[in-house]
Amino acid sequence: MGEVWLAEREGHGGLCKTVALKQMHAGLLADPRHARLFVEEVRIGMRLHHANIVHVFDVGVGGDGRPFMAMEWVDGVDLARLLTVLRHRRERVAPEVAAYVTGELLRALEYAHTLTHAGEDSRIVHRDVSPHNVLVSVSGEVKLADFGVARLARAATSGMFLKGKLQYMAPEYARGGAWGPSIDLFGAGTVLHELLTGQRYGERDGEGPGEGIRPGDPVAVWPGVPPLLLQLRHALLQRDPTRRIPTPTRALAALRRWSGYRVEAAALAAVCREFVGVSAPRSGLPSAYALEVPTGQVDGGWTQTRTALPVAREVDAPAVLRGRAARGPGGHGAV
Questions:
Q1: Of 128, 217, 240, 316, which is the active-site residue?
Q2: Is 121 among the residues known to form the active site?
Q3: Tell me: the pLDDT tens digits for 267-323?
Q4: Hey, CA dihedral for 275, 279, 283, 284, is it positive or negative?
C-alpha cells in the first residue's frame, strides 16, 4: 500500500537528517479503508521507542495529497535478502550470530507486547514477524520493521481478513484468523529456523501455514547447532499455541541458558557490510546515491529527485527518490 524512499531533509544551518520516507500509493487515496490502515500504522509506529524497533518520528501530507511518514533509516539489509545470498553461496550464519539476532528480535517483541501508553494497556501484536521484516545494519544492529498490519492486543478484529505473509503465519492465525501475542512468537521461531537451517520456512514437508514443526520432526540444520537452540526453535514453532513459549521474556530466558549466547554485533556487522559493499558505517547519504536530477518539491522541506542505484548486488533498475536518496537494498528503503 506504500512506497518507501531513502530521503534527506535539510534543516537550519545546512544540517541534514537522513530517513526512510514511506508514502501511500496515489491509487489508494480514494479508498477510505487504506487511508485508515495508513493512519493506524503511523499511530502505532509513533508509540514505539526501542533500540530494536524502527522508529517513526514524523508524519505529514505531501502537496499531492498523499500522506507520508518519516522513519529511521537502517543502513543495511533485510534478513530474508541476506539469508538468500548466503544460501546461494552455501554459506551459513554462525550459531552465536543466529542466537544474537533472535535475542534482539525477542527484545523488540518483549517491548511491544508489554507496552503501556498514557497509563493504559497498549500492547502491540506485530502479526507479520518474518525474516523480511527484520533489518540488520552495517553496525550490527537488529531492528523489527513494518508495523503496517500490527494491532493493539486488546483490539477487536472481524476475522474476515488474514494480514501478513501466509508462509510465516502461526497455525491458529492461518486457519481461522485467531490471533494474539503468541503468533509473534511463532514468527520469531521461523526467523530462528531460517538462521539455523539456511532454508526458507515452509520449503520442506511438515512446515508452513497451519503446520509448524514437532520436536521430533527430521528438519535438517547446519552442523554444530547446539541442542538448546534447536529446543528453542521447536518451542517457538509448536502447532498448538498452548504448548508454545507464551512470551518473549520466557523465550529470552531460554536463550540465555545457552552459554554461547552473547552480543555478536561485530560479527553481524561484518556479514552485513560485505553484502552492502561498505567497510564502515555511513552517515548522511551514501556516495552511491550522488547522481541526482531534481524533479520537484514536497511540503515539509522534502525534495524529490531521481537517480540510478549502484548500491548492492541486486539493484537492477533506476528509482525515484525523495530527498537526495533512493530506495533499494542499501538501507531501510529495501523493498
A1: 128
A2: no
A3: 999 999 999 888 999 877 655 443 333 334 444 444 444 333 222 222 222 222 223
A4: negative
